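Q: I'm a student working through a structural biology exercise. My instructor gave each of us a protein and asked us to get a predicted structure, then write a short paragraph describing it. Mine is Ribosomal RNA large subunit methyltransferase J. I'm not confident about reading structure output yet, so if you can add a plain explanation after the tokens, that would really help. Here is the sequence I was given:
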Amino acid sequence: MLSYQHAYHAGNLGDLHKHSLLAWMLAYLTAKPKPLSYLETHSGRGLYDLAAEASRKTGEARQGIERALDEGWLPPDHPLSEALATIRAQHGPTAYAGSPLIAQHFQRPGDTVHLAELHPAEHEALSRVASFAHLHRQDGFQMAQAVCPPTPRRGLLLIDPSYEIKADYEAIPRQMAKLARKWNVGVIALWYPILTDDRQARMVQDLRAAFPEALCSEVRFPPARPGHGMVGSGMFVVNPPFGLPEEAARIEAIFARLRP
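A: Happy to help. First, here is the predicted structure for Ribosomal RNA large subunit methyltransferase J. I'll explain a few features afterward.
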């Protein structure tokens, strides 16, 4: 249950899809002067080194963010490009920001951040770079249910589990329904992998039925290596900000060129 470490996968194509949309949403929400809350259920360590052994071992960042930067998939003024440039100016040219530090890039005085991470080593690493946030070493769903509705009430929740626990696929629609009832004005974003065995399909079907007006953005890409089970990435967003469907379509068009 606590074996997953994102350092092996940071900056992969799933991260590129997820973080492009997350950064765009945060840029949109913070363009208005009203304060907001940002919550995250599975934060990881917040900052990754793409030159580290874990990243080099899988090569997933090379196929993801590094290729995207080399080939100019995102313009320099895209919110993710700007956030990553800031992170690399502070932490070096091979740094990659997890979602907590992407959120920090957009954080303003008056904004509140809550980050949950249960893995002891990941939580310890997160604590070294996330002094800007309220940190919770506990189950992320428990944190979200306890904090929601947050203060300020305006804001965004990112749910990004490892899916090592197969029960997550069944539990997430119930968790999101409960959170949406508690926090009906919150943007609730769920990332999920698209797998060769399609185990995510029932969860997505249940979410679509429960939230017919939500945004569901899915992209497909070649497996990172032969036999690798993840062949795509999904973002399901309840209460999507204005303009997000158009941004999702732009990102999806980039990934459409990668299909085998």
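A: Here are two points you could use in your paragraph. DSSP finds eleven helices and nine strands in the chain. Residues 6-256 form a domain with the Rossmann fold fold (CATH 3.40.50.150). It's a good idea to check both against the output above yourself.
Q: Great, thank you!
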